[in-house]
Amino acid sequence: MKSSSPSTGRSEQYLCNEPLAQFDYSDPMPKPLHRARVTAVFHDIPGVTSIDFAPGLAPRSHVDDHVKILLPPPGAPYRSPVPIPAPGSPAPLLRTYTRRRYDPATGAWGIDVLDLGHGGPGSAWAGSVRPGDEVTVRGPGGHWQMPEHPGTVWMVGDAVAMPAISNALEALPAGSRAVVLLEGGGRSYPLPERPEARIVDIPVTSGGSALVDAVRRLRTPDQPWWAFAHGQAEMIRPLRRHLRIERGLARERLLLSAYWIAGRDAEGWRVMKPEFNRAMEAESGD
Ligand SMILES: Cc1cc2nc3c(=O)[nH]c(=O)nc-3n(C[C@H](O)[C@H](O)[C@H](O)COP(=O)(O)OP(=O)(O)OC[C@H]3O[C@@H](n4cnc5c(N)ncnc54)[C@H](O)[C@@H]3O)c2cc1C
Known about the structure:
single chain; Elongation Factor Tu (Ef-tu), domain 3; 2 domains; globular
């Protein structure tokens, strides 16, 4: 049930690229920050907090379009919406979420935050955010656009990839096919209904091993195919090895993103991720 929507006013872009240099962002391309107003918070999907925002960000132009929500670290001398921190003050925490909803007519957008049940800062924010709150948002960013005629797309992910996979299903052109392998797919996340998609629920296993095994068992399509895979790092690396080396899938037909790693929070993972990606890609000489 939607709660009240007190404001749909345009969110304000209030920082330029330049001050971002003082933060330890792994992204080499600084992106603008925006102040974004929450218009609605709802819980229509079990285990998910859906959060809608007023217009003001660039249009959603990629299947994997995402934003980073800036949150004050514990003890920070500033609060949300995070301002440009004074030199020497602690950098904000960044939590990344897929823009699941985007209304091209108004520019309003929304995210779905999975309840991970561990009280991390992103989960805690989603648990307490209210309509009318303002947050600082970095982005949007994104890397992949659906090809015009992809043939078959394998969409593979764990629970937090469900918003991105839903966007991919929506973007799937008529006449193309999708094979969707979802860890914990038995959850009630409402995937867009596409008759061309075969959805396979995979049990949750440590390191996503059942998901990787399920991909190994798929028959390589006769027609051109692509792979779109998101989730924990321990599952993404063997997946890439399998798809790229054992199946020989061309690099440009593979969009993988290691969203998180067990035992590290998003800050810890952000520090490790560039080297992780380098080592993973080096396995296939990329
Ligand atoms: C491009 C991108 C898009 C994303 N889109 C979404 C989205 O649409 N919705 C969504 O809910 N999440 C999404 N995520 C994942 C989300 O950013 C992370 O799960 C985030 O770390 C959660 O923040 P937190 O503060 O709750 O936990 P953190 O403080 O980052 O981590 C606390 C603890 O929880 C563990 N942890 C972190 N993430 C997970 C997880 N997914 N499952 C189990 N344990 C975890 C960590 O290893 C750590 O031990 C996306 C990530 C990326 C990179």
